[in-house]
Write a structure and sequence with these properties.
This protein is of the alpha/beta class. Among the domains are: 84 residues, 2-Layer Sandwich (Gyrase A, domain 2); 154 residues, Orthogonal Bundle (Isoleucyl-tRNA Synthetase, Domain 1), CATH 1.10.730.10. The chain has 23 helices and 14 strands. Strand 5, helix 6 and strand 6 form a beta-alpha-beta unit.
Length: 603
């Protein structure tokens, strides 16, 4: 509701100060302390233009401003004009929370579609906690965007033609399948051994490379058998994803990219002259993208080979072609078949040579969730789009980079096997044990297992996304499961408290009777839900919502301790506080939902 309030105040400021509405909107902020509920800093800009004291201008603007019903008074304080919310505003806030309920704070539907690609884990190993950060970040970004009103397509890129997959396929064919193990875990452990053999045994190298060639041919028996194995591995990886509430719409396989859109992409790139064929030098015969912008000026070798002399594409070449397809620039289209039915009852599809046409791709914006080590290749993609004169597509190509979750002295490595003991499945299992230990005294019966699983999943999810993507994560169980700190259990427990009051007393009535400090502070935080959602969606930073959840829970607990609700002797006060409680309940539930967390009703 803050966004509507901001518009109203900005309109008043624009008229009183004689400035355009967009300038007035940019000047609206939330003051600290007792200086008001909303403020404008427009007087600083006016002081520069008019060469006057900003405090003097603030006094003039405060006198001229015509207040809407939501504002009780305007007051100049130094160079700022502060506005104080009226009872009419708080009544409207409570009414909106009650009427909109699950849609409270939600943005209006917008045009276009955003593709978010994540986590793109090689299909020959289980997810470790580094992969989990990518997956949870991508999933939370999707949830925030959807809650803000955007149409989102959750996409996963499956690299089924890489050397790592060929090594794993060779190992699987030669070592066989061990019984009782999850396939992705088995393949991962085999890969560690095969990679050692590959590096030390030239005979193994030759066999694996021959196998890779047959895989790339597409129609060979080896290619078909490998595809089946890859699909089974991805299905095993998705068993992990579902434990954390992570879902997808479509999987795009690299083998299908090479078979369906690769030639089309090369033709488009060559025709646009975005790439040049080198006639001499170390890149002789290669098609190269020239990085001409100043951003690459300090690099010794900024140019990027997209197509090798033998006609094969580099990783970046494939990524560029895939990006062109995502924006609907290429003519050729994939076919799709069903991959699996997910626990959220939605079917996940995959590209397939025998499938049917589907309405995927053709996005207005593309977000690639990839680690910081891919900053340069992602910049190359944008630069190539610009050189092809796809300026809008370049602007809407977003690399959401993130730092990794690592061990104390090294990063996780598939080849070295340092992920063993730190898989996402093992993290989840440990979470179940710890969550059960926390709740076993309080919760009995059939709900205990379900609630324990929800707490474990939510605690891990929150611990991973509460930190901004560019910062490294050090995961700590004591913090993740704490009921007293910056954690999902803390936020969920506040929601459960509010729900218990709602069960006993209902929604209450929005009539106001002498709002106290704790009640006002809580209501002001509730009003900021749509603003937090909007900021998180605009900047692709779900940690903004995580911060909001903790701040809201903290203010609710202060309200809970200072303002008796069910036990209140005054009927009007009781009804008002029940209405505030329901508004807080709604805001907490929706904020948690926006980052993919289901708020528990009891805990």
């Amino acid at each position: 509701m803050f966004l509507a309030l901001k518009e109203k105040v900005a309109a008043c400021v624009a008229k009183a100060a004689g400035v355009p509405i967009h300038e007035a909107e940019m000047s609206i902020e939330l003051p600290k302390g007792e200086f008001g509920d909303v403020a404008t800093s427009i007087c600083f800009a006016l002081a520069k233009k008019e060469k006057k004291n900003p405090a003097e201008i603030a006094s003039e603007v405060a006198k001229k401003v015509k207040l809407p019903s939501w504002i009780s008074r305007a007051e100049a304080k130094g160079p700022y004009v502060n506005f104080f919310l009226s009872d009419a505003f708080y009544s409207s806030l409570l009414k909106e929370a009650s009427e909109k309920s699950d849609k409270f704070g939600m943005g209006k539907p917008s045009k276009g579609k955003i593709i978010v690609e994540f986590p793109s884990v090689n299909p020959n190993k289980p997810w470790h906690i580094g992969h989990l950060r990518n997956a949870l970040l991508g999933d939370c970004v999707c949830s925030v965007l959807e809650f803000s009103g955007k149409k989102v397509e959750r996409m996963d890129y499956i690299d089924d033609l890489g050397l790592q997959v060929a090594q794993s396929f060779w190992g699987y064919e030669n070592f066989g399948k061990a019984k009782g193990k999850k396939l992705d875990l088995e393949l991962g452990k085999q890969y560690v051994e095969v990679s050692k053999k590959f590096e030390s045994d030239s005979a193994v190298q030759e066999k694996v490379r021959k196998l890779l060639k047959k895989m790339e041919q597409g129609k060979s028996k080896e290619a078909k058998d490998c595809r089946k194995l890859v699909e089974k591995c991805v299905a095993a990886q998705y068993e992990t994803a579902f434990k954390f509430g992570i879902f997808h719409d479509v999987l795009v396989f690299e083998s299908d990219i090479m078979r369906t859109i690769f030639d089309d992409g090369i033709k488009v790139l060559k025709k646009s002259r975005a790439i040049e064929r080198e006639a001499e030098g170390k890149n002789k015969g290669c098609w190269v993208a020239k990085m001409k912008s100043t951003e690459f000026a300090d690099m010794e070798n900024p140019d990027k080979v997209l197509i090798r002399g033998d006609g094969t594409a580099t990783y970046t070449g494939k990524d560029v072609i895939f990006q062109l397809w995502k924006f609907g620039i290429l003519k050729n289209q994939f076919k799709y078949s069903k991959f699996l039915l997910q626990p959220n009852k939605k079917e996940c599809f995959m590209t397939s040579c025998k499938g049917k046409k589907g309405n995927y791709g053709k996005a207005s914006e593309v977000v690639n969730v990839i680690g910081t080590e891919q900053i340069y290749p992602q910049k190359v993609i944008k630069e190539i789009l610009l050189s092809m004169d796809y300026k809008k597509e370049a602007q809407n190509s977003v690399h959401l980079s993130y730092e990794h979750v690592g061990l104390a002295d090294e990063k996780f490595s598939g080849r070295q096997g340092t992920w063993i003991g730190y898989t996402a499945d093992e993290l989840y299992s440990e979470g179940l044990k710890r969550a059960d230990e926390k709740i076993k005294k309080e919760i009995k019966g059939k709900d205990r297992e379900k609630i324990g699983a929800a707490i474990a999943s939510s605690a891990i999810r929150f611990a991973f996304i509460k930190t901004s993507p560019e910062k490294r994560i050090t995961f700590k169980w004591d913090e993740a499961l704490s009921l007293e700190g910056d954690s999902a259990p803390y936020a969920i427990y506040a929601h459960a408290r509010a729900h218990k009051i709602f069960e006993k007393g209902g929604k209450g009535k929005a009539g106001l009777t002498g709002l106290g400090k704790e009640e006002k502070e809580l209501l002001k935080k509730i009003m900021l839900l749509d603003f937090a959602i909007n900021e998180a969606a605009k900047h692709l930073r779900p940690h903004i919502i995580a911060d909001y959840c903790i701040e809201l829970a903290c203010l609710y607990n202060k309200f809970y301790n200072a303002c008796p609700v069910i036990s209140s002797k005054n009927r009007k006060v009781k009804e008002m506080r029940l209405a505030i409680n329901f508004a807080a309940l709604t805001a907490m539930k929706n904020a948690l939902s926006a980052i993919g967390i289901s708020a528990l009703e009891r805990m």
